[in-house]
Amino acid sequence: MIDLYYWPTPNGHKITLWLEETGTPYTLHGVNIGKGEQFEPDFLRIAPNNRMPAIVDHEPADGGEAISVFESGAILLYLAEKTGQFIPKDLRGRTQCLEWLFWQMGGLGPMAGQNHHFHVYAPEQIPYAKDRYRNETARLYAVLNRQLAGRDFICGAYSIADMASYPWIVPHERQGQNLDDFPNLKAWFQRIWDRPATYRAYQRAKAFQTSTQPDEAARKILFGQNAGTVKA
């Protein structure tokens, strides 16, 4: 049994995609990031960066005590390696899958996240920042589009690399991107959207959906953190 500490953000969706694909039993625990629930002491014990998602695996492979894992990429890798599902078994395939998993974690996610912030949430419009992150998001879409030429999925077969990237493409309109400009990516996006597990994962999110525009109190929680937030 997996306890998943979750909110319906792109990083949260990554984990429900994997869990629904594999049929792994799990319990969803909502962590309302707009209300500051990510800073609760109980959550901090399993997620020291005060960010969701995080999991607790009550049946780790070594048969020992429960294991907690934070960071969405680490969670996907942990689950895939534990079960041998959605990660290639051969050296070269596994290496390629990890390259694209880390590409998403280090590139697509952070750049698209900043794109969202300056286009949707920033209290003032800064043209340079909006152009900077919209253009970098477009560059990353083009990189993924090129990788998908002649492939159904990023590494050939559907894998954690796809599960990591797909949720960050879902809000492409908010990122100022037109999927028609990236035909290989568009076809890949549709393939994943058509998977029954994808439908189930996004249906689970509906129980936690809130307004896309946070109020002032939520903005302070989401965007007003600094070193003083971290308590020793």
TrEMBL record:
Transmembrane segments: none annotated. Residues 1-87 form the GST N-terminal domain. The lineage of its organism: Bacteria, Pseudomonadati, Pseudomonadota, Alphaproteobacteria, Rhodospirillales. This is Glutathione binding-like protein. Gene3D superfamilies: 1.20.1050.10, Glutaredoxin (3.40.30.10). Residues 90-214 form the GST C-terminal domain. Belongs to the GST superfamily. It holds the Pfam family GST_N.
